[in-house]
Amino acid sequence: MQYCSTRGGVHGWDFRDVLFSGYAPDGGMFMPESVPVLSPDTVRGWRGRSYPELVVEVASLFIPNRLIPRLDLEVLVTEALSGFSLPEVVRVARLKDGLSVLELFHGETLAFKDLAMTCTVRFLEYFLQKENRRATVVVGTSGDTGGSAIQSAKGLSGLDVVVVYPQGRITPVQEKHMITCLEDNVHVFAADGSSDDIDQPLRRLFADQELVKSHGVMSLNSVNWSRVMIQLAHFIYAYLELSGAEQSEAGAALPELEVVVPTGGAGNIAAGFIVKRMGVPLKLVAMVNSNDVVHRAVTAGDFSMAANVTQTLAPAIDIQDPYNMERVFWLLLDRDGASVKNMMEEFQNTHKYSLPENHRKLLSQVLSTGTVTDEGILETMRRCWDENQYVLCPHSAVAVWQHYHCPPRPGSNRCYIATASPAKFQAAVQRAGLTFDLPEAVQALDKLPTRYQILERSPDWCKDWEQTLREKIQSVSVSRKNRGI
To answer: In the chain, what is the greatest distance between 2 CA atoms, to the nearest angstrom?
Structure first.
């Protein structure tokens, strides 16, 4: 298994190289050069496997045994997922009228990012120890990724974590999961801007290959292939739990499962599309909030950013640059790196791109979309509580809105992805007129000291933020050397 860039300029990298990278040197994103296809009988044979066992099965398809032997992989995944509040790690809540919600939020920061982040950090630590190397992780976050990266990597001697979040645009719990971590290897910046603003200086930093190589700079956003790779497993888990595949005979075609995904940066929907390409019959629905660039791309070919990111009740998907759509386009266009390069460079330079109609039709054949207002989010949260006594987080409500407004056809199977606990979004729960008992760990966050640095909005803010982050990366690298780490 080797990896290439979606923009065609890089080929033949192995998993270890890709793991320690952010964007590819040509500005693209890494993808496997070939996507393994699962036979229907292989899929049926995985029925009854636990979620951690499915993660191992999936990861072993993309990580050669010579890099991480199977037994080591099993240990790494087991240890990574051992800290979740559920022994089974994830679960399906089966509610009234066929409403099946896949809960992915039982990790330390109460968000689905914990699933892939904990495993990816274990893989990193495995190679760092083996090679006696050090690295600096740089993460821009729209809310959940930063906290998950920090909690997964805090205290590790060989890994520094630099996290940048949009101040005032995330919830207090999301913020406290980051700024209350006082470990020496954690460095948090609060930026006066949106998550899309943050991406601009980070792209410039990752494009500086001298900086990347000399200081071991890497990404733990879903830019990192390992994050997307682990997310393949929960789509397969959902399929095995809810599609009815076990009732189909050996050798017969597999039944279809519709999966409805709240979508921001599009990492989760990209993972679902890869699973579909692997031969698992998924029907994918990407649900967005008022930041509707993915919806406009599918329905009208308008892959363009709005003038500003709209702040909504679902802040983790308040994104106008759904960067993982690059992976979707690459698969959709049969790995045509040149076309993807032209498309994405125009989008990044002008913030606009009009999909040719034949490309839009291809996209609409593999992805349906919908958009939900804040009032729609609140309405969905209230109705789900009234009918099931079940509290949704606002992001999960973006998905479940589809259940009430576009119910599944009789005899079809559908799953809704729940990406976070309602405990992280208390203001939205209160606005819906609901109550939720906060976990003790969340209540304790209010009593902890904090530490972070502010990135102010200057006339040349992008350059200034880049310089500040560059200096931090250089200083932590020097500090490690001085300490002999």
So the answer is: 66
Give the H/E segment covering residue 111: none
Q: List the one residue out of 185, 195, 184, 73 whose CA is nearest residue 145.
A: 195
Predicted pLDDT at 354:
97
The length of the chain in residues reads 485
Q: Look at strands 282-288 and 367-371 and give their pairing.
A: parallel
What is the model's pLDDT at position 482? 64
**Is residue 50 scored above 70 in pLDDT?**
yes
**For residue 203, is pLDDT > 70?**
yes
Structure confidence at residue 242 (pLDDT):
96
Structure tokens at 297: 């791309």
- The residue with tokens 């890869």 is 274
List of residues 6+ apart from 482 with CB closer than 8 A? none
SS3 418: strand
Contact 151, 177 (CB under 8 A): yes
Other Cβ atoms closer than 10 A to 336: 15
Give yes or no for residue 485 having a pLDDT over 60. no
Position of tokens 């939900």?
372
Helix intervals (H) in 218-354: 225-242, 267-277, 293-300, 325-332, 337-350
In three-state secondary structure terms, 368 is: strand
Q: Can you tell me the distance from the alpha carbon of 69 to that of 334, in angstroms, rounded to the nearest whole number?
A: 31
Report the amino acid identity of residue 362. Answer: L
Other CB atoms within 10 A of residue 271 CB: 24
The answer to whether 238 and 157 are in contact (CB under 8 A) is no
Q: 483 pLDDT exceeds 70?
A: no
Q: Which helix (H) or strand (E) holds 138?
A: strand 135-140
pLDDT digits (tens, 9 = 90+) for 324-377: 999 999 999 999 999 999 999 999 999 999 999 999 999 999 999 999 999 999
The chain-wide mean pLDDT, for the chain, equals 93
Which two tokens mark 223? 């830019």
Asked whether the predicted pLDDT for residue 134 surpasses 90, the reply is: no
Tokens standing for residue 85: 């509040």
User: Hunting for tokens 């993972």 — which residue is that?
Assistant: 271
The DSSP string of 206-230 is: HH-HHHHHHHTEEE-STTSHHHHHH
Q: What are phi and psi of 178, to 5 degrees?
A: -100, -50
> Kindly report the CA angle at 320 between 149 and 197, in degrees rounded to 5?
65
3-state secondary structure of 370: strand
Amino acid present at 215: H
